[in-house]
Amino acid sequence: MKELIETIVKPLVDFPDDIHVDSVEEDQKITYKLSCNKSDMGKVIGKQGRVAKAIRTVVYAAGSSQQKKIFLEIVE
Questions:
Q1: Looking at the whole model, is its pTM more than 0.85?
Q2: Quaternary form (predicted)?
Q3: What is the spatial distance between Cα 49 and Cα 62, in angstroms, rounded to a whole number?
């Protein structure tokens, strides 16, 4: 799943080497934390959060086969 998130986000940003995805696994959920360069934050979030929503939609759909709920957080 980390590779999928990186594959989606890297073409959107100016500094693809600064993309980091960490995962926190709990009993019923997995949280992926996406961090990027501060200057790329707007590109990842998009106008009114549309890009972030689209990324989350793809990640949730890809993880629907797992037994755990998947969350994606965009952190600074």
A1: yes
A2: Forms a complex with KhpB.
A3: 20
